[in-house]
Specification:
Length: 167
């Protein structure tokens, strides 16, 4: 019962951060193994959901940090291309009613799919900011990158998302 109550939240958090459904499954499994180890402490606790979300976020980031060298390499390689991009502004106005005609579940699926298309160095800060409610400073510290890079990556991720959703 405990696992069923939180399995969707754990999996969706891991999937958003990892960007890979199979990695998200592995992370979710690790989360619930940790939950089992601490079951006496979290069973019936009002903070169980928050604890699981924190553990999921941390394990997802740990998973990504295993590939940090590769991530940094591609991130730095992409900087040259990013320098040619605009400062994150869309070349067109995004209508406020962009997804108004799309029903809740379909809208969520389109947004989730668009998020998964983002490169890791943009997806992770965006997810941490918008879905995990972390501040720019917290994200910079967690990912060990500069505050300016966090802001730039989130801005560019928003631009890419808007452009993807317009298609």
């Amino acid at each position: 019962m405990f696992m069923r109550a939180y399995q969707d939240m754990v999996y969706s958090t891991a999937a958003r951060l990892s960007g890979d459904p199979s990695h998200a499954e592995d992370i979710a499994q690790q989360v619930f193994l940790k939950a089992w180890e601490h079951f006496d402490r979290i069973r019936g606790s009002a903070q169980a959901g928050g604890w699981l979300k924190t553990v999921t976020t941390n394990l997802s980031l740990n998973h990504l940090s295993r590939y940090r060298r590769r991530w940094r390499f591609f991130s730095e390689m992409g900087r040259a291309a990013d320098a040619e991009d605009e400062a994150g502004e869309l070349p067109f106005a995004v209508p406020e009613t962009l997804l108004d005609e799309v029903e809740g579940q379909e809208r969520q699926a389109r947004v989730e799919a668009a998020i998964q298309q983002l490169p890791t160095h943009r997806r992770v800060p965006l997810v941490l900011y918008h879905f995990e409610a972390m501040s720019y400073q917290q994200i910079a510290e967690k990912l060990q990158i500069s505050l300016a890079k966090v802001k730039t990556d989130i801005s560019r991720a928003r631009t890419a998302l808007a452009m993807s959703l317009m298609q």
